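Give me the 3D structure for PIG-P domain-containing protein.
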Amino acid sequence: MDWPSPPPTSPSLVVRSPRQTVGLLRNRPAGDHGPKPSEVYGFVGSITTVIAIAVYLAWAYTPEPWLHSLGITYYPSKYWALAVPSFVIVAVALSMAIYMGFNFLATPPPTSFNTIFGETEVSTVFFSIQFTVTSFWSLHFHLFFCILYTSASQCL
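Predicted structure for PIG-P domain-containing protein (156 residues):
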């Protein structure tokens, strides 16, 4: 069994920046193995998130005299350890409430004439987008069940 030869070491394969690394990873040959850029970004992102949470918890729960004994004297007030998560939770809750409110505003009430079907179709306008829906309610129920359960040639 012949092993593949290593790639040539040409000056074009020398990487001088992260952008060149990403460019080489995206344009690699089909038989090339190794991690994809999305996998690398996901791994780096997850490790960064774990480190950020560890630093946040250490800052939030470590007493100030311990931080001073470690030589850490420049850090935000402990007030922000509770304020920022509270602001984020309130912002998420308000955005969900606003989203539901927009949905209620976009939906016509049940008594609106926009929800009543015509003889063959209904044309409705929401947010300046017009669409047409063909109504099955305009079919007689005998014809509807005949088309549904038998061949169409017997119904005509």
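Residues 17-75 form one domain. Let me know if you want a second pass.
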